[in-house]
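Data availability excerpt. The first of two example chains:
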Amino acid sequence: MSIFGGLRSGVSGLFVQSQSMAMISDNIANVNTVGYKVNRPQFSTLVTTSGSETLFSAGGVQSTVARDIDQQGLLQASTVSTDIAISGDGFFAVTDQVTLNPVTNEYEPTGDIFYTRAGEFRPDKNGNLVNAAGFTLLGFARNSADTAFNTTNVLSAMDGVNVASQSAKPQPTSLVDLSANLQNSTGTGGSFDIAVQVFDRQGTQRTMTLTFTKVDPGVAADAWDVTAELTAGQFVNTDASNNDGGTGSAIDAGGGSDTADDNYLGSDELEAFQGTETDYSGFAEDVIGTGGIANLGRVTFNTNGTLSSVTDDFGGVANSGVALTGNNSFQVLVDYDGNNTTSTDTVAIDINLGSIGGSDGLSQFSGNSVINDLTQNGKQFGSLSSVSVNEDGVVTALFDNGEQRQLFQVPIVTFNAPNALRPESGNVFSQTDDSGQPVVKTAGNGGAGSIASSSLEQSTVDLADEFTKLIVTQRAFSANTRIITTADEMLEELVRIKR
C-alpha cells in the first residue's frame, strides 16, 4: 500500500539525514586537524518496481560517502623545520611500528604501512620523526658509501627517518687557500703576518702564522721569504734525506714513491698522512725548524704585481724539508703533539698561494698589505644543531661546526584513485582494491607534488559551508519526521473506518 511506502521513504530519509549529520559533525570537529580531508554525503534515489504503470511504489533515498582526499588544503607556515606539507598530489608513507636493525643501525618498518597528508612530524625518544598520531615517517636512507640515497619502490624496504645520535666528526685541515696583497713598497726586512686557524685530527683549533719577509732587492727582486709558526706542535720534514722515500725519510713511512720530484709528496705517500699509517718512527730526526717554526720557501712576483714563482729556496738556499705541490703551493707535514715515535696525528697541509701569472692568490701591488680571502677545510667536532627538509624531500642535518649532512630523502606516494583510499584512525589512509597500487616517486617527479618545508597543510573544512549544511540537514530531517507522522495519522483514519 502506498501509505506504507511513504513510511519507508520517510524512514530512509531520516537515516540518510542522520548520516549527513554525522559527516558534518566530523568535519566540524576536525576543522583544525592538520591534513584532514572533508567528507560529504551523496544522495541517490531508491526505486522499487511497480506492478502497474498507473501505480507508484515509493522507494526512498540512499546515501554514500564522498571523500575529497585529493583536494589540496591551504599551506600554512610553521616555525618547526620538521613540519612538512605536500603541494600537489601524493602522500607521505608512514608506519605504526619500527624496529632497530643492529646491523644497518636503521629503524625498519615492522608494522602496517599507511599514507597521510598530515606532516606535523617531531622526533620521538629514539629520534624517529613521528606525527601527532604517532605514525613514523618513512624515507630513503643514504647508501653505505654516502654518495646517494637507497631509492626503492618497495615500501617495506624503506627506513624510518631518524635524526638522533647525529654528530659531525672533526676534520683536520689539509688545505689552505690564501689570497692576499703584499705591498710592493715594503722595505727590505719588512714583514706581513697572516694567522691561519687550522684543526688537528681531534678537532682542536690551532694557529699557524705565515710570515712574509721582503728580500733585499739586490739579492732577489720582488721576492719574499716565507716562514710558518705553530702555537703547538712542530713541522716534519717531508723528505729528510732528499731521496724520495729512502731510509730515514717521512715519505718512506707511506710506503710509496714519486720519482718525478724529490720534494713532491706523491699520492701514495700522502695516504700515510690521511689516517692509514700508524707508525712514524724516525720523525725525531726529520723535524724541520725549531720551536714550531719552519722556513717554507720564497715567493717572487712579476713587475706587474702578479705571482711569478713559488720555490722551496729560503734565503737563497734549497730547503728539502718542504714539499711543493704543483708550482704554486707549499706542502708541510704538521705533527701537532710532537710525539715523533707514533705520530698518528700528523697531517699534510697544502698552502695554496694562487695561480702563477695571476692575482687570484698572492699579489704585490701598491696598496697596503692586506688579506683578501682566507679559507681552510678543517672543522672541529660538531653536535646536531637543527634539521631541515628541502622541496625535494632531502632531510639535512645542520651541525654547530658549520657542516651539513644529508640523512634521508622523503618520497611521495601516489595512487590512480586516491579518493578510494580507506580512512583509518589517526588521519591516515590505507590501500584498497579500488585505489590501485601505491607508486613511490621522488618529490616533484612523475606527477608527484613537491614538499614544502616548515609548512603544514590545513584541513579542507569550510566552517561556514558546514554550518549552512547543518541547517539544511536539520530542516530535511524535520521534514522526514512529518512524513512519518502524517502517514501515521492516515493509517489511524483507516482504522477508524472499521469502527
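And the second chain:
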Amino acid sequence: MSANRAEPECSDDLAEDVTVLGWVPEPAELSDVELLLDGAFPPLGGFLDAAEAESVRTRRRLSDGTPWPAPITLPVPAEVATADEIELRDAEGAPVALLRNIAPWSDGTTCHVSGPLRPAAAPGGALRRMRPPAAEVRAGLPAGPVLGLVADEPLHHRELAQVRELAAELDAHVLLLPRMTGPRPEILVQALLAARPHLPAGTTIVPVPLARRADPDGDAALAAQVAAAYGATHLITERQVDGCPIPVVEPPEMLRDSEDRWTRAGIGPGSGGLSTAELRARLDDGAPLPSWFTTPEIAEQQRRLHPPLNRRGFTVLFTGLSGAGKSTLARALRDELSQHDHRAVTLLDGDVVRRTLCEGLGFSAADRSRNVRRIGFVASEVTRHGGAAICAPIAPYEDDRDAVRRMVAECGGFVLVYVATPLGECERRDRKGLYRKARAGALPEFTGVSAPYEAPADADLVLDTSGLSQDEAVGRVVALLRERGWVGSWTWE
C-alpha cells in the first residue's frame, strides 16, 4: 500500500468543510470495487465493517445469517480513513467510485474503511463495455437452466467438449465469465472469444474482474457467488465449493478417439490430452500446439498469453552493500545481453535512479523503500513489454525486494542476485569515502554501518566479488538465465 498516494480534492457538490481524499486501491481491491458497483456481490452494497468482516471470517456468514464466503474489505492508511469522502481511482488516476458515510475500523494492525459505494464516472474502455451490470446480464438470459463457467485459462478442444456435453445434458444456456486477472486480461478475453464458434449457440460471454484470493476455498466460493449474481443456475467446477449458492456440476472425463474427436469416457476407447505441465512445457519452449488439442485461433491467443521463455521479459535485481560491485556487474551484464540477446536492455543503477526517477528522496527507511519500489515498478513495465531490466540498488530490506519480485513475476522472469562481498572489502574499495564518513558519524543512515542491511535468504544466486573476476561473476548470471530458459546460448568470451 505504500506506493499509493492520498490526495486532497475539492468537490463542488459538497460543503466547503468536507474533506475529500483521492486514493488508488491495490489491484485486487479495485476489482472488488468494480464488482460491487456492478452488483456482482449481492447483497453487499459496499465494503464490510468490522462486525460483518469478523462474522464472515469466523462463520462464513453475514451477521444476518446470509452465507458469504470471503470478507470484502478496503484497507487504507490512517490519514485516508479520517476523510469525509474517498474518491477511489484506478492505476491511471481516473475516478472509479465514491465512498461516503465512511466508518473507519481496525483489525489490530491495519486500518479499514466501510461504507456504501456509488460510481464516480461513466464506465470506459473496450473491456468495460463488454461488462454490463449483473442485473442487466441476468435479465438478458433465456428462461431455464444457465450453466456458468468462470474461466482463467483459454478453453481447448477437451474443455469445449465438456461444456457442450453438460449444456446438452441440462438443456442449458451457457454463461462464460472470463476472469480478468494477471498482466494480460485482454488476451484471455480474446482467447475465450475465439472459442465462441465451438461453444453452444448463443453462449453469453461477460468478463469479470474477479481477483484471486489466497484461500482456495474462499476463492472458489466467491467465484460461485459472482456466477450466480450474473444469472448462472449451475456452476461447472472440479472443486467442491462449501456453501455454494447454486448446484455444482463436475466436468465429465473426455477422451480423444482415433479421429481426434473428444467423447465422454466410457463411450469407446480413446486417449487423453495434454496435461497442464505438458502444455506449459510446450508453451515455454515455443513448440506448436497440436490440432487435436486446440484450434489455430485459440492457439494464437494462448501463445500471446504465454510466450516462449526466450521471448518473455525478465528482470535481474542485484542487491548488496555499497561497494559490493553491483553497478559494475550490472553494466557488464547489460553489455553482454545487448551484444547477444534480442531484447532491449534497460539498466536501472541505484545512483542514476536517485538523480532522476527518485530525485528528492532521502535515506530514511521509508525513502529507501520508495526508491526500491519505484525501481521495481519501472522494471516490471520493462518486463511486461518483453525487455530485460537490470537493477542495481542496495535494496536493503526484504519486504521491498519481495514486493519487486511479486510485481515482476506477474509478467515475466525474476532473478535476485545477492552480491555478498564482505563489508571489509567494500570499505577497502570505497573511492567516495562514504564508509569513512559513516564511521565518523557524518552519515547517520548509511547501510551496513549506521543502517541495517537484511541479507536475502531467498537469493537465486550469491556472488562474492572479492573472490571472483568480473567475467566469472557475469558468466554465472548468464548461466542461470540460460538454465531457466530466459536467454539462449552464445559463445562466452
